[in-house]
Amino acid sequence: MEQSEAFKSGQATIKDLEKQLDVCGKIGQVCEKSAAELTIEIEEHFAKCMNALAARKEALLKEVELKVSNHKKSIEETHKKLEASIQVCKQAMEVATSMYAINPTAAEGFCKELKNVAAPKIFDASVSLELPLSLFNAIQEHGKVQVGMGRFSVVERVSTFAGSVSGNVNGTGANASFNYPTALCVNPHDLCLYICDSKNYAIRKLTMNGQVSTFVNLGKTHLPAGITMSCNENVFFAVCSNSNSVIKITSAGEVSVFAGSGKTGSVDGLGANASFCSPWGIAIDQQTGNLFVCDNTGHKIRKITIQGEVSTLAGSEKGFADGNGHASQFNSPWGICFDEHSQSLLVCDSGNHKIRRVKLNGEVSTVCEIKYPCSVAITANQVILVASRSQMHKIVQIGEKYEATVIAGTGNRETIDGNPEECGFIYIFGISVHEPSHSCFVADYSSSIIRQISFDNPN
Where in 141-290 does DSSP place strands (E)? Predict the structure, then answer.
């Protein structure tokens, strides 16, 4: 009886355990199902997070791109404003220089106005475009100097500034003498003239009080033709005869060959590895220091960098053709000047009786026709002046519409000073603008004198 009770009790215990095990199995099934659902839920949440992050990333990228674009536009606008300020400053310097020759007191007042009022604005990009108005207000307030095409338009008088008979004498005015001067340029610092005195084999200096001195004696190895000067007072001149080279003279008077082997040719290269064919006219871009040379019998325009690297900018064989680089043609290019306003060159294409314009990319176009042009210069307010040699013996002005007008010289070969319609030249070579004195100077080659052409005073 007791065993039976024990057996029953054991069975009951087993049944209880089986029930509990069954419950545990059901709980396990529930847990397995919950884990699967939880895994799915986690994966769905993770996917949503990734999508949200991708969307945020895209939004941030667009925001950054917009900010970069706006910043770039701001930089470009600032650059344009600063460029405008630079141009205005250049114009201010030209106006101040011209003003000083006419009214020193007004010029001093103008410069004070620039220093105290206008100059601080140069470095503020937000107001730099307002600078021109400040400058022109200052101009009107201190002297009312005109800066338009009215300046350098009417010749008042032609006179002999220095020299008399052929010779090699230093002195003042007519007491000095030259021997076939070919070209001249203005020193941007002391505003004196530097002259190629060809048959004296010298570079001469001429002050504005008429004092002539010898800057450098070159010896008979270098017969100077064209001349220009850099802003740091280095003189460069072309030697067209036996040397066929470009010579450099430092402000200390040290002479060296800057480019050219001395042999006749049209070879591009560095320094003495290059060659020229009777180089004549020479001009300089004061911003870069690059030189440009008329290779007269090579019928090309050559470029020389500040390192002395020579290349052909335009021209090929003798002829006449507008175009780019080697596609263009010249016929004995003679005189040349650099137009800072348009950043291009003006060339006297003498054999074609034309004035040509050469852009710095080598593109050549024709400006107008002038008989036998040999030298060209341009004023600060874009008046082009041309000296005509040989049969013309005249000074010609090219206007805004590129029409050519004779402003001095009868065309007769005679040295006569006086009114522009009565004056005469014998054989003009070089011409150079002298803004402060409101005049230009001419090398009257065969007369061995330097002539001054005085223009009307706008005041």
Answer: 155-162, 171-172, 181-186, 193-197, 202-206, 211-217, 224-229, 235-239, 245-249, 255-259, 269-270, 279-284
Taking the mean position of all CA atoms in its chain, how far away is CA 413?
38
State the DSSP H helix or E strand holding residue 30, giving kind and residue range, or none if neither.
helix 2-102
| Mean pLDDT value across residues 199-204 | 94
Q: Are 313 and 302 in contact (CB under 8 A)?
A: yes
The residue that leads in pLDDT, 45 or 96, is: 45
Return all residues near 354 (Cβ < 8 A) that are at least 6 apart. Answer: 320, 366, 367, 368, 369, 370, 373
Using DSSP bridges, classify how beta strands 384-388 and 373-378 pair: parallel, antiparallel or unpaired: antiparallel
- 174 or 457: which leads in pLDDT: 174
At residue 1, the pLDDT reads 47
Q: What is the dihedral of CA 419, 422, 423, 427, to 10 degrees?
A: 150
CA atoms of 379 and 338, how far apart (whole Å):
11
Residues 6+ apart with CB under 8 A from 251: 232, 233, 234
Kind of pairing, strands 394-398 and 354-359? unpaired
Helix (H) or strand (E) segment spanning residue 442? strand 439-444
Cβ neighbours of 1 (radius 10 Å): 5
Q: Across the strands, what pairs with 94?
A: none
d(CA 262, CA 246): 9
Instruction: For residue range 223-278, list pLDDT tens digits in order.
Output: 889 999 998 889 999 998 778 999 999 988 899 999 999 999 999 999 999 999 99
Distance of alpha carbon 189 from alpha carbon 195, whole angstroms: 16
Query: Taking CA 213 as the corner, what is the angle to CA 237 and CA 337, rounded to the nearest 5 degrees?
Result: 30
* Secondary structure of residue 295 in the 3-state scheme: strand
Question: Residues 438, 98: contact at Cβ < 8 Å?
Answer: yes
* pTM recorded for the entire structure: 0.68
Q: How far apart are CA 18 and CA 131, in angstroms?
A: 101
Q: Is 89 left (phi over 0), alpha (psi -120 to 50) or beta?
A: alpha
What is the spatial distance between Cα 200 and Cα 422, in angstroms, rounded to a whole number?
31
Q: Is the dihedral of CA 397, 401, 402, 405 positive or negative?
A: negative
CB 245 within 8 A of CB 259: yes
Write the DSSP string, 307-369. Answer: T-EEEEEE--SBS-B-EEGGG-BBSSEEEEEEETTTTEEEEEEGGGTEEEEEETTSEEEEEEE
